[in-house]
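Structure ticket #2291
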Amino acid sequence: MNRFVNTWRSHVLSTLTDDSDGRPQWVGKIEQGDDAGLFGPGSAAWSVHGSMPTMVAGIRALLMQTMHPGAMAGVHDWSRYRQDPLGRLSGTIQWLITVTFADTATAKLESSRVERFHRKVVGTYTDAHGAEQPYAAGDPELLSWVHLVFTDAFLSCHELWGGPIPGGADAYVREWAKAGELVGVTDPPRSAAELRSQLNAFRDAGTLKRDERVTEAVRFIRNPPLRRSMMPAYRIMFAGAVASLPADYRALLGLRRSPLPVLWATGVLLRAVRMLLGSSSSSEVAARARIARLEQGRA
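Resolution: structure written out below.
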């Protein structure tokens, strides 16, 4: 039994971090630095991003992202998700965790890495009205959409399966606006109401659509090339992510909510994974070590 648990734990950590010990090389940088970072202990961002519902939030965010044809074109034309899906996942996690837990200078440096990659991502796409449009990953509209769907996904999933958020939903949206600004987002939402309003504006403007690219991406997200031992748990999380979506977005994606109690099952699964992996992430431990060092230096 212990051997099975250790093997499964290693598979989970390899999937999420590209490292079987769950402490990839870049976590070492989180221990370094000269300040508490953009957020710090007790913040809404630490609470949300250090919790298990992030595993489902990532799935929900990817599903939502596909609905903007410009964002989908960038993923289709430039992403390595078919050849190296776990590499893309670990790269996204690296940015998210670094900005959340690292010192300010390291968070800015990691965000500049993302911005440099965005400069290469250009092309054209067919919009929801059939017109050909140019795109660049650094376009304000695309940056805004990606920021909105990620913020919405992590907040919504934490509200479903996580604990209390310090300061509430508004505090999380307001804090994570800083991360959006680091990668070029202009006027990010600073409250839960603004987040919903900006998301609804994309839907109400007729910007979003489903086409064969979206169908292909959703099919891939539903059945990624994970180890066979991980697929039962992943299928529960995927079903939970779908169930967490508002009905109009599910319809646009061509997805149906399972009639089974998948929200409950996802909660049970996340609690089991938390027991398996431990309650504190290696990134949070590294951040607390940095802050303790700074406090000792000031004593």
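Closing remark: Residues 24-298 form one domain.
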